[in-house]
Amino acid sequence: KETNQDSPLYMSTPLLDPQDPMESVPLSVGDPMVCILGSGDFSRSLSSRLRCCGCRVVVGSRDPQRLPPGLFPEGVELKTQRGALEGSLVFLALYPEHYPSLLTLRPLLSGRILVDVSNASSLKQEGLSNAQRLAQMFPCSSVVKGFNGLSAWTLLTGAYDHSRQVLVCGDCPSSKLSVLALAQRLGFGAVDVGGLSASRALEEAPLLLFPSWRGPLLTTMLLFSFFYLYIALKNVLMPFLDRAENNLHHLPLITVNQALPAVALVMLSLVYMPGLLASVLQLYRGTKYKRFPDWLDQWMCARKQLGLLSFLCAALHAVYSVCLSIRRASGYMILNAAYQQVLDSWVETQVWRSDLYLSSGILGLGVLCVLALTSLPSVGQALNWREFTFVQSGLGYTSLVLSVAHVLFFGWDFAFLPRAYQYYLPPVFLLSLVLPCCVLIGRFLLLLPCCSVPLNRIRRGWESKQNKPERERQENGAVFGDV
Amino acid sequence: KETNQDSPLYMSTPLLDPQDPMESVPLSVGDPMVCILGSGDFSRSLSSRLRCCGCRVVVGSRDPQRLPPGLFPEGVELKTQRGALEGSLVFLALYPEHYPSLLTLRPLLSGRILVDVSNASSLKQEGLSNAQRLAQMFPCSSVVKGFNGLSAWTLLTGAYDHSRQVLVCGDCPSSKLSVLALAQRLGFGAVDVGGLSASRALEEAPLLLFPSWRGPLLTTMLLFSFFYLYIALKNVLMPFLDRAENNLHHLPLITVNQALPAVALVMLSLVYMPGLLASVLQLYRGTKYKRFPDWLDQWMCARKQLGLLSFLCAALHAVYSVCLSIRRASGYMILNAAYQQVLDSWVETQVWRSDLYLSSGILGLGVLCVLALTSLPSVGQALNWREFTFVQSGLGYTSLVLSVAHVLFFGWDFAFLPRAYQYYLPPVFLLSLVLPCCVLIGRFLLLLPCCSVPLNRIRRGWESKQNKPERERQENGAVFGDV
Amino acid sequence: KETNQDSPLYMSTPLLDPQDPMESVPLSVGDPMVCILGSGDFSRSLSSRLRCCGCRVVVGSRDPQRLPPGLFPEGVELKTQRGALEGSLVFLALYPEHYPSLLTLRPLLSGRILVDVSNASSLKQEGLSNAQRLAQMFPCSSVVKGFNGLSAWTLLTGAYDHSRQVLVCGDCPSSKLSVLALAQRLGFGAVDVGGLSASRALEEAPLLLFPSWRGPLLTTMLLFSFFYLYIALKNVLMPFLDRAENNLHHLPLITVNQALPAVALVMLSLVYMPGLLASVLQLYRGTKYKRFPDWLDQWMCARKQLGLLSFLCAALHAVYSVCLSIRRASGYMILNAAYQQVLDSWVETQVWRSDLYLSSGILGLGVLCVLALTSLPSVGQALNWREFTFVQSGLGYTSLVLSVAHVLFFGWDFAFLPRAYQYYLPPVFLLSLVLPCCVLIGRFLLLLPCCSVPLNRIRRGWESKQNKPERERQENGAVFGDV
């Protein structure tokens, strides 16, 4: 009986024993009892959140007198650790290194649910997780890991929003359920992530720093430094060595603005390359049931980040280009051109060229911008699968084509001048076009019926002969039908 | 005994073994058993998600041997379809055209919950939905529709986020509840959307492609092409016919940039027109209890999309205008002007004009930007009703006023020159002002007490005499009080 | 028994009478019965939402005949108020001023759950809240406050999204639970916020208009008007009085664009100042267990808004600066400069200066933009604590440094010219640098080991001697270990 009374899940029961509902209601249903050991920030925030949601809270501190009054919200009972141990749910708001200090309470804690809210002190630790060590210390209590992701701040001010989740794991299902129910009651999305063996992952999660962004960021930096150095070499260093021409002042703005678009374009093509490779692999293997090599899997998972970084570079490029006209230098050029009485005769094609590469650039960036928007969690979730594919692949390729057009229009008139290749270094925009063009061509080839037809068959579960055991071929596509 | 009874997750268990719950707790409560028929992608992703959340999973494949090892996550039992049929929940991860192949299992499936996760193969199909046909085939099992919106991808990598929902429908409430509970356990927001008759809608949902955007997009395109052609006719074609003046190079950039603001402005006024019409209609009818005509309802629902598209056009217009100064052509003009020694004498009013229309434009766009932000799901949900109205209607009209001011400042000096009307075609900005001005005037009139007072009465539930049966008039506003 | 059967919480019932689960299921579990008194918009929307989620709905109107057919969705029973009173849940969809009209139904209502969905008519009312008055009128029914935040619109079209919450409060826990369960069933996030005393807050919530933005907005406006007037005085008024120079046309654009960056910079420093003050205070007090003064707490809570407004100003500044080159005036200057045959001799340092302050500005804004993005609810929630700190504090200071650099580069050449100080007024950019520099220096000092080491100790719970009672010093940091 113990368990139920305090288990938040008990809430529903009084309705169920019709003899005296009104009596047992207020206590058991409305106000499940929660005990928190420790009086730190987390303890404070958790207790006030619990109070808000109408739970009874008892905080156990080593010496309650020592705590300044008003530290805890109203209605929270402050007791000694011994005195606090009522109810089945006990939160341990201590640093794990202090768990041993609780061994004296072992008999009192036995039979209760100990919620371990601790985080790992560092990544890749050896041995057991905090929760597992706790479980060893208190074999007679059932340990549940959870609530550790939440900062004191979130607990206090966080919206009662189910999209803020509490991941919970533990070996005793019923204890887990009490904790899950409590988490839900506090307005969090509560998720059971399995046995206590999962606790290590939960404990380390808060220490991770954008793991999924590391690779893409590195790629961007490498690409950028390559292009930057290449341009610096070609437009700044060589001219200086060659004819002592001082272009140093190109470095902060102009060179950056030549490298950025190249990076953006290559990154964008990197977003769509893994998809192509995957399709080719499936075609070649004649089945979709073989796993992809890991590097490809990882690449696939990094596409979103690659795309966003490509968008970032493109946006920066746009801003830089616009700012070029504000530069002091541009003022000089015009004025001096004017001073030298240059008559810059109107070249129709030049006007067309600049207008075309400007508009293709703007539109390309615009489309990319829509893509970036849909990668916002709340927007992406509002899309169904077909819409998502349409945006990601349809619009994505559109922006790739527009960007390539942008570069081609930009480069058309000096792509074929020998002076564009001085020092035997091809212009940057040519280099940046290689990968995108490969992707576009590859994509085009895959659209040809000779490829697309078998590919679709494979994607629906069909398998080429060498992948099927003999007798399968009689049955008409047994496994074929699986979603 | 108690414990299980109260746990919501227990819903699924009674079907398992009613005799001794206490025993089956760890199993039934903690690890509900789920069976999946079919070994495709969906089956794989679903099974690994189930494992993550600590469920027991048995996958039934036609011949388990055939499946390459490591295809399914650890802990998933691979059996024959017959052998797999344990537990009450059975997911059918097959294409609907293969359901008949299960008829042999009918006796085994009877009494179990069949979850149909299939999507419609095409929109607007005749006859029964997949789920309904399934229910016909297996009258002794209870069919529940659900989980079909989710892609294999979402199941695998999707955050355990309740804002990602699983819509469920079915005719047997208790079965539905088991599926709902499972969905919640997997960390999705689970919603009951009624009987199996709703399954058609669920099955077609994933096939829809931005249904709510079709109308607004069409409007934008029509408006754009109208304005574009009008400007092309006036500034490119006529001058050419008239005095062989070649303005072809206006088409890619300048003409677009003249059409965009017109479109943006008209769209913005279209956002606020239906609200006005609705008020007028209510005033005229003297009640709010009559339904609006459908076209008005639909227009009302399209306001958000109209607004976002208007913002898009406005933003593009801003970018284009800024880019105009980068254009090759603008370089020519300045230089040649300089070459011809033009002394462009300073006209104070001109400076004021340009500064004023620039700032009103920038501010208008800024306000529109805030509006667009609040239409992001996650932002909009954080607003209460009053804040939402303030932003949508208050800020909305502000931006409309600012945009109109922008256009007026822009046009003030050549609105009244005869040459602005050459070929008897009024300038575009005048055309684009018509609708917005109507809206602003209409809005202003509705603010006058003579309209606003009765309107508020009506909105609070008051009804004019002709809408009320005779005797009502004695009672003092009986229904008046309804929220 | 009746009552429970219809309460949505009863879903768990089949477990409760094991004799014949299949029987009692359909009614009790699937279709809880809900009664709505009142036939207004809210009633209509609520009833259709309830129908969608498979609940039985009875609407009680004063005279059902009077209501136009088709006003309510199919399946909703329209009855007289008396006739409608079945089931345990009764929604009152009336304006609170009409509650007394229900007194006649008191006997019928007794024992039922009355859900009060009303909002406060105005902020800061005296006396009891609507819900409390209702509870007084109907002592034998249990009143639950809830669903009031939701607009009819949200009820109708709102996604079944748990991030849209229903806050519920009431004195009878079991009734509250039924309402919470119903809210969840309708696909809302349901949160218990305590006893009926909390109803005042719930009723007033929908009337609040961006309470958290008021302070920061005021600050921005004050700062802006100060800088604007200062600049107007220095660059427009004084020159006019002094040498009758007419710079009036500066006011709309140039002056604004000089004030904006100053405001942005000061605001940004205001974001990081409270954090510094808090650290200093903790160092000085030698403990983290003393509460901060209220003004500091409030300041801390306003940081997000301050940051966003600073970003807004910075963005506007960027747009303005770019637009300056489109201005009519800039055209004049160039042309006339050209006309007067000015030879603007190339000054290398000038080019460097302009390029450097442009790039530092762009990058600073870019970083700030990332910061602004993470303050979107859906994005922020996807970050763990370490990532959030990294972005907010790490990137935040980066952008502060970049912005300061931007200003320094901008001002370097005329910071030391006497004419920059004419009329004894220092240039604006100097004024705007004061606060940011203080923040940066303070931050730097806190990073020195002499400060950072004790600070970290304090943050881990350590307390200086004067804060600890005598004997504590023997025990090795008893409370030290609390999270």
Most extensive chain interface and residues per partner: A-B, 81 and 83 residues
Please state the CA-atom Rg of chain A, rounded to the nearest Å.
Answer: 32 Å
Number of domain modules of chain A: 2
Low-confidence stretches of chain A: 1-30, 470-481
Question: How much beta of chain A, percentage-wise?
Answer: 5-15%
Helix count of chain A, per DSSP? 19
Helix content of chain A: 55-70%
Q: H/E series of chain A, N to C?
A: HHEHEEHEHEHEHEHEHHHHHHHHHHH
Structure description:
- The structure is a homotrimer of 483-residue chains.
- By secondary structure, chain A is α/β, with parallel strands linked by helices.
- Chain A has helices at 2-6, 21-30, 41-52, 81-84, 106-109, 130-137, 152-157, 173-185, 199-204, 211-243, 251-285, 294-301, 303-324, 328-339, 348-374, 377-381, 385-411, 428-447, 449-459; strands at residues 33-37, 56-61, 77-80, 89-92, 113-116, 142-145, 165-170, 189-192.
- The relative contact order of chain A is 0.07.
- In chain A, helix 6 links the parallel strand 5 (113-116) and strand 6 (142-145).
- The first copy, chain A, is built from 19 helices and eight strands.
- Chains A and C meet through helix 2, helix 3, helix 11, helix 13 and helix 14 of A and helix 8, strand 8, helix 13, helix 14 and helix 15 of C.
